[in-house]
Design brief:
Elements (H helix, E strand, L loop, with lengths): L11 H4 L2 H9 L15 H5 L26 E2 L10 H17 L18 H4 L1 H8 L6 E3 L3 H12 L8 E5 L4 H13 L7 E4 L11 H10 L4 E7 L11 H10 L3 E5 L18 E4 L14 E4 L6 E5 L7 E4 L2 E3 L2 E5 L11 H4 L22 H14 L4 H19 L9 E3 L12 E5 L4 H10 L2 E2 L1 E3 L3 E4 L8 H20 L13 H4 L2
Parallel strand pairs: 1-15, 3-4, 3-5, 5-6, 6-7
Antiparallel strand pairs: 2-8, 7-8, 9-12, 10-11, 13-14, 14-17, 16-17
């Protein structure tokens, strides 16, 4: 089979060998980052008891379980990232501070400790900004993804008699549908105000730039907001954020981005791309832990807090014959407000005068969970060992290798199709594989029995995501061997050929 990807010119026999995968890992300096993470063992995944079995990850701090083949193959960082080894250390520091210092942990910078809880949101701004390509003042770690989308839409979705529609991607994650529809309902508008961009045909699972722009243009005169995913959760398509943002703004439309599957996965330049706002979670490629606190971006032009004359006519308020002053008031973008978004110098005055912090921090509501922030901090410190550009280059090779191996199915045509764009510039780490009908349950069972973790989307899709921070080329090789074996077994099972696998109940196979 011709090889036009990053491994062009390499013979199939060499490309598909374990030796090749090991050599790729050996010459890749970033492969050392794997040691920063706890890789679940196959035994621990099957263990029905809490925690580790003796002799696995709990006792091992080198990144290996001794017998490398006992490590699981974890390609599910697009759902939940693995735990950085330093997370436990950081969380223990937090717990020890709370236990030994109580409320003083808010204010005191202890030797060998973490930043005081009062300042922990500020402490991780710079690292977060580098990952999303923003100014530190444009980002804040707070709340969770859908909550942040609601907070941002409460500020940026301002429907009027001319513009009231919201445009989203038709197959966006359900929570985005719920959030936008509820915002529309909140303004007493009809659900028809929600416009979806759908694939032009069933055979084209992803959206071309031309199609996206044409739908936006069609509804431009009546659209108040466009909200799109940076990377589509199902197909893995990486949207052209810069192009779409520029197009929307040229038509007078505010544009926001759900970056759940993009942050920590692909390089972003939110400031330079002039994005209005964005939100993300920190538990997928960011490895912050299940349900951990999220983050948001507000471009600096929307985060200004300025003193403006309170008198529209700018007529001086004469206080004495010889002295004249102009009364001023604060001008800032409307938003739902809370005390943690108020300027620190006035936050504890309790005078009920809201003075927002300039930038994204002014959108905060309550003090953030110090436990959550500690977990995010541990992951950010791992990201600080490299750059997003370097991770992207490794990811292109890693996912390119996965693609090359998937396309080389031994013994004929594969019983699956890759539905993620073939152009590496239009995808992140994830490849979505559409299995022939009826194979999914059998394939998944075989993968799980052999210590492989991937994400499934009913009825027939596997989402496979080698994360460049901790996955290896050897992981890909081992996965392909097991996956192809699973496919052959599923295809050969009695009752196959479009029907459910042997041993799978009808009720499950029909879902």
């Amino acid at each position: 089979m011709p090889n036009t990807g990053p491994f062009a010119g390499i013979q199939d026999v060499e490309l598909c060998s374990e030796t090749f995968a090991k050599k790729e890992d050996e010459k890749d300096k970033l492969s050392e980052l794997r040691k920063e993470f706890v890789i679940p063992s196959k035994r621990d995944l099957k263990n029905k008891k809490f925690g580790f079995q003796h002799g696995t990850s709990k006792e091992n701090t080198s990144g290996s379980t001794g017998d490398r083949n006992e490590e699981s193959i974890y390609f599910c960082g697009n759902s939940l990232g693995l735990q950085p080894r330093r997370t436990k250390e950081y969380v223990n520091r937090y717990l020890d501070t709370w236990a030994s210092k109580g409320v003083f942990g808010h204010f005191t910078d202890y030797e060998g400790g973490l930043p005081p809880w009062l300042h922990v949101d500020e402490a991780i701004k710079e690292q977060t900004a580098k990952i999303v390509g923003a100014l530190p003042t444009e980002v804040v770690v707070m709340e969770t993804l859908t909550a942040n989308l609601h907070l941002l839409m409460s500020s940026f979705y301002r429907p009027n008699k001319d513009r009231w529609k919201i445009i989203i991607e038709g197959k966006a994650f359900p929570s985005d549908h719920y959030a936008t529809l509820s915002q529309i309902a909140h303004h007493n508008l009809d659900p028809s105000a929600l416009i979806t961009i759908d694939p032009p045909s069933a055979s084209a699972p992803y959206l071309s730039n031309e199609h996206i722009l044409s739908v936006i243009s069609e509804h431009a005169a009546t659209t108040a907001l466009v909200l799109l995913p940076g990377i589509q959760f199902y197909s893995g398509q990486f949207f052209d954020i810069e192009l779409i943002t520029r197009h929307c703004q040229s038509l007078g439309i505010t544009v926001g981005w759900d970056l759940a599957h993009a942050v920590g996965n692909v390089p972003l330049k939110l400031h330079d791309w002039n994005v209005d706002f964005a939100a993300w979670c920190n538990y997928k490629y960011m490895n912050g832990g299940p349900g951990v606190i999220g983050g948001l971006f507000v471009h600096e032009r929307h985060g200004k807090v300025e003193q403006v004359p309170s008198n529209p006519s700018n007529t001086p308020n004469t206080q004495s014959p010889s002295t004249s002053t102009t009364e001023t008031t604060l001008s800032y973008r409307p938003r739902l407000s809370g005390w943690w978004g108020s300027d620190k110098s006035s936050r504890f005055r309790m005078d009920n005068i809201f003075v927002p912090i300039p930038g994204a921090s002014g959108f905060q509501l309550s003090n953030p969970s110090a436990l959550d922030m500690t977990s995010v901090m541990a992951s950010l410190d791992v990201f600080s060992l490299t750059t997003m550009d370097a991770l992207r280059q490794r990811s292109l090779r890693l996912t390119g290798y996965l693609e090359a191996r998937l396309l080389r199915y031994p013994g004929g045509a594969p019983p699956y199709t890759i539905i993620t764009p073939a152009n590496p510039a239009e995808r992140g780490a994830q490849l979505s594989v559409l299995l022939k009908p009826g194979l999914l349950d059998s394939v998944l069972h075989h993968l799980e029995e052999n210590g492989v973790v991937v994400d499934e989307r009913k009825p027939d899709v596997l989402r496979i995501a080698p994360a460049p921070l901790y996955n290896s080329f050897l992981d890909v090789h081992r996965f392909i061997v097991i996956f192809h074996e699973a496919c052959r077994k599923a295809v050969g099972a009695p009752g196959q050929g479009g029907k459910h696998s042997e041993g799978v109940p009808e009720a499950i196979a029909a879902t």
